Structures are given as C-alpha cells and as structure tokens.
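Incident review: delayed structure delivery

Summary: a single-chain prediction request sat in the queue longer than the usual turnaround. Root cause was a stuck worker, restarted by the on-call engineer. No data loss occurred. The affected request and its eventual output are reproduced below so the record is complete for anyone auditing the incident later.

Affected input:
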Amino acid sequence: MSTFLETISEALHSGFGDVIYLYLIPLVVALLVLLYRWSEKRSVWKLSQFADMRVLGRLLGSVDRRRRRWRAWLSIAAVALVLVALAGPRFGKRTIQLTARGVDVVVLLDTSRSMLAEDVAPNRFERAKLEVSRLLDQLHGHRVALVVFAGRSHVQCPLTMDYGAFSMFLSSVQVGSVELGGTALAPAIDKACKLFKAGERKYKALVVFSDGENHSGDLEAAARDAVKQGVVIHVVGVGTAEGAPIPIRDESGKLKEYQKAQDGSVVITKLNLTGLSRIADVTGGKIALLTGRTASMAPIWSAIRKMTRKELQSRTYTIYNERFQYPLLLAILLIITAALLPTRAKPEAGRG
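Output delivered after worker restart:
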C-alpha cells in the first residue's frame, strides 16, 4: 500500500508544479457543496417568513430545481478546475545545458587604519567597499573572491559564483577585521594569487583596492611572481596626494582625536600612487583612482570583459511544458455555461 501511495505521489509531483492545490480540491468541493445546501435551506426558510405556504409553493414551482443544481455543480466544477490550473499541470519536458564562461576575479581590499582617512567621502574604506559592490554588478558570469589585508591577509570569501554570499561577506568587513595592524600589501598579493588555479596561464584577474601604503615585502617582486602565474593585477588607488589625518572615534562615532606619531605630530596618510602604478605596469593591468566624488572603474571593467574566458560551470536543466491554460479555459467555459443556464421551467405568471 505504501509503495502504491509513493508511486502516486511521485506521479503527481512530476506532472504538476505545485500539488498542494490538488490536495485542496476535495476540501474545497466539500465546503462548496455544504455551502450550496445550506444556502438552499436558508433561502426557503427566509421566504417562509414572508409568504403564505400556498404562495410560496407557486413561486418555487416555477423554478427548475434540477437546473439550479446543474448550475451549482458547474460552478463547483469550475472552481475545481481553477485549482487544477493553479497546481501547474505539465506534460512533456526537454533538457537544456547551460554553460557559464568567465574568468576568476579576486578582490583585494585594504582594511588598514589609514583607510579611515576622510580625504575621500565618507572615508577611504567605505568608498572602496561601495566601488567593490559596483564592480560586482559588472562581474556577473565570472567567479569572484574577496581577500582583506592589513598587517596580514585573510581570505574572506573563496572563489564563488554566489554573488549574494560575496556581498554578505563584504558587508561584514570593517577596518580592524584583520587583527595585526600595518599594511602588508606585497604578502597579500602573494596570498590572493594562491586562490587561482595553479597551472593556468590566463583567466586570472586581481583587483586591488588600497591607498598604496606598504610596510612589508617587495611590491615589484610580488607583481613579477603574479605575472609568472598569469595573473593580471588592476589597481584602484583610494585617497588623495594631499592626504588626510587618520581620525580616532569613540563607540558612538564621535571624533576623539587624530592618530599621532611618536613625536606627537599628527600622522598624514597620502595616496602612494607610485607603488600601485608599478604593480599595474608590471602585470599589464589598469589603474583607477578614487580621489573625489566621481570615479570611473570603466577601464578595469572593460579589461576584465575582454579577457579570454574559460568554462566555470555547466548545469543541465529540465524544462517542463506548462499546460495550465487547458483546465483554466475549461473552467471559464463552465462559468459562462452556468451563468447562461436558465433556472425557470416556464415564464413567470403575470400578476393580476
């Protein structure tokens, strides 16, 4: 018995998109039948309160009760067919294979304290996060990853085509997400390059969002190693040449003071465009600057789009031929028929 029920269930699920509406049909039909019978009895009772039984008999005698029942059953059948249509009947299917082709793009985001400088509104870090989100909108069809760095680097999101997950990880990143202070850009580039598939000489792009400070490692050596692996590094310089102090705020966001050097002077952090430009030059990447209210990432978007693509993902989908229109059309015909069906057996007698 259980095997038979399982077979029926499988057949229903394969033949209908949402079988819950089929399960509702017996309940809805039963309720409508009860409602019809209750309505009939209530109508007779109401008439009996205002008319003599002999007059009532003459009034009801002109009504063809069989036709009224037919009208009710046609209406109930129409409701059942509407539920069948909502269940999404489908007969026949075909399979299609979709292949996603693209490149692997790793975003390297600077989370050092210098990114709190406010020479770019609202500050360097928040502006960089905004541009990463905008870049993501242009990268559909590609795999993306997120690496954050300060004194050390950390893989925040591995290579994925789940852009929702990437956005979630990006939104959780803050200055201070990496425990060790400082700015170790060169080691971060090395770590980011390890996310790419070894042995491939193309399909790889690294986009660096940073103010260019580097307190550890040789940037040019890191760039040359990236070239050997087939990685193109694009850089986005965040900040201005004039620079700005680094604010220190309390938990409520109120400014307490500015970061100071050991001699007590206020530290001014400036965009190190020279180091960033060298990285892009060595690897053949593009440069974009976030130095004001407007900035164009178009050169980087365009360069990534022009890269040779590889097969990233291949999926087979089953497409069913929807047939909901047939029961829906039949339901409409039944409703029209019920509306046009006369319920009087003969013309109503004239009043004398």
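Verification: The longest strand covers residues 90-102.
Action items: add queue-age alerting; document worker restart procedure.
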